[in-house]
Amino acid sequence: MDVRIYYEDTDAGGVVYHANYIKYMERARTEYFRSHGFLVAELADNGFVFPVVRLEIDFKSPALHDDLLSVTTSPIRISGSSVTFSQKIIRPGDSKLLADALVTLACISPALKARRIPLDIREMLELDRENVV
Fold first, then answer.
1. pTM value?
2. Among the four 13, 69, 88, 103, which has the fewest Cβ within 10 Å?
3. Could you read off the pLDDT of 73-92 as tens digits, one per residue?
4. SS3 for 30?
5. CATH entry 3.10.129.10 includes domain 2-132
């Protein structure tokens, strides 16, 4: 998913404010599911919610106003009720890696109880993971 950096995304130093990278990754995960035919809102309506339960980010280089960034999302670990994605934010113009993250989502019910990832989603994640490895 591509993201354009606007003035509102930057801090007083003129670089992207660190918390905004988390927003870009959230959008990219939502678009990842959408591109595979799964809408996050519909999943929630059907009792499957996927909150972030772990987030590890290495900030490598700053993004600046008007940069065009690319956010990649790839599943790397899948268990019965969680999935860990590798997410990278890259500036395609110079292929510079700006942020490298591991993001773990749990599958839970609206009552906040752990649930198994639905089979169709699990199969999609497994197939994508095989293509990454």
1. 0.93
2. 13
3. 999 999 999 999 999 999 99
4. helix
5. yes
